[in-house]
Amino acid sequence: MSSPNAKRARTDVKEPSSSKAPADSSSNGWLAALHAERCARRGIDAGVSVQEAERNRANERARAIATTVLGGGGRAETRRATDVARQRRTNSTSAKTSDEAETREHDAGDLRLLTYNVWFGDVAQAARLEALGKVIAECDPHVLCLQEVTPQSLFALRAHEWWSEYIVGPKPQLQEYFSVVLFKREIGSELVRRDQHPFANSKMGRCLDIVSYVRCPLSGTNFAVGSSHLESYISSNRTSAQERRVQIEECFSRLNKHANAIFMGDTNWDDKDGDVPVPEGWRDAWLELRPDEPGFTYDARKNDMLRGYLQKRLDRAFVKLKHFDVKNIEMVGTQPIPGVTYHKTVSNRGKSEIIELPVLPSDHFGLLLTLRGKSRRLDEDNDAVDLT
C-alpha cells in the first residue's frame, strides 16, 4: 500500500520515534488517510512526487547508503555467505531453545518465496526491523521481495546474518522508498538476469523487478520471479484502479514467456477494482489453496497495531507453473513483538485520548509461498533460455 495529505491524529511512541494516524474509519477514507499518513511523514506530496529539496536530500542519503548496502560481492563474499549459511543451519538444529520450539521445519525439496511490505513508518522502527529480520530468517526464503524499503531500513536489514546469503536483484530506484528483490546465491547461475521495467503510467515511480533463469536448488529447474508495488490509492476520485490494471497486465505479459513464473508483491488491489485480469495459465495461489479464507494481508481487525476496520487482500501471489506444484501459502509476521508497545492519540466521541497499542513487524502481513518440484524426465523442456 502507500499516498497524499489528510487529517491525522498525533501519535507518541515509547521508543524514540513517532507516528501519525488517520481518524477516518470508513473504508475509502481510512485507506486514503492511511496512505496520506505514511507518505506525508516522508515528504511526499499527494502521492505524486517528492518536493524538490527533500527529494535531493533523500536521494543523496539513498545513494550513500545504497552504495554501501548494495555493493557487489565477489567470490570471497560468496564463500563467506556459504559458510554463514552452513553455520546458521548447524546452530538451528543443534542448539534449539524452548523459545525456538515453533521454528519452521523446511523440506529440502521446497522452493520458498516471501513477499513483504515492510512499512516505511517510523513507529518503533528499530524493534520492527529487528523482528522483521527474524521473520525472514525463520522463513528462509529462496527469493525475498520487499516493498516500502527505505535506505535506513535496508541498512538495518543488512546487519542480519542471513543477508550475506543473498544477491540483490535489480538495483532499486533511488527514491524515498522503493522495492527490493533478493535471491539466494545457491539458486543463481551465470544465466541469471536481473531486469527492471518502470511503469510508463506510474506517477509514484513504481516498476516491475524480474529475476529470471534462477534454478531450483534440488531439481535445477529454471524459474522466474517478478515483483512489484503497484500504484497506490490516493483519494475517492483518484483511486489509481486503471493504473493498477495496466501495470498488472504488463507484469503478466513480461513473465508469460517463462514455463515457470511467479508474480508476487503488494498489488494494492481492491475488490472495487473488479477481478484481477489473470491470463490463461496463471492462478492466484491463495484462492487455489485457501478459497474459504479472506486472505487480508492488511487487516486492522487482526493487526493490533492498527486501528479502524480496513481489511484488504493487498498482497498476492500468482503462479504459472509447468514443473512445480503449489504446496502452501501462509501469512507471516502476524504476532506482536514481545515487550514493545507505542502510544497513539485518538479521537473518542470528540475527545482526544491516548491509548497503548502493541507493535508488529509491519502494518502488512507477509505472504510466504512454498512450491514443490514435480518429478520430470531428463529430456523434458526446462524453460529454454531466451535472452532477448
From TrEMBL:
One of its GO terms (molecular function) is single-stranded DNA binding. Residues 76-86 have a biased composition (Basic and acidic residues). The keyword Hydrolase applies. Residues 1-29, 69-105 are annotated as: Disordered. The keyword DNA damage applies. It is found in: Nucleus, PML body. Pfam families: Exo_endo_phos (PF03372). InterPro entries: Endo/exonu/phosph_ase_sf, Endo/exonuclease/phosphatase, TDP2-like. Its main location: nucleus. Residues 18-27 have a biased composition (Low complexity). GO terms for cellular component: cytoplasm. Keywords: DNA damage, DNA repair, Endonuclease, Exonuclease, Hydrolase, Magnesium, Metal-binding, Nuclease, Nucleus. Its cofactor is Mn(2+); Mg(2+). Residues 114-364 form the Endonuclease/exonuclease/phosphatase domain. One of its GO terms (biological process) is double-strand break repair. It comes from the Eukaryota. This is Endonuclease/exonuclease/phosphatase. It comes from Ostreococcus tauri.
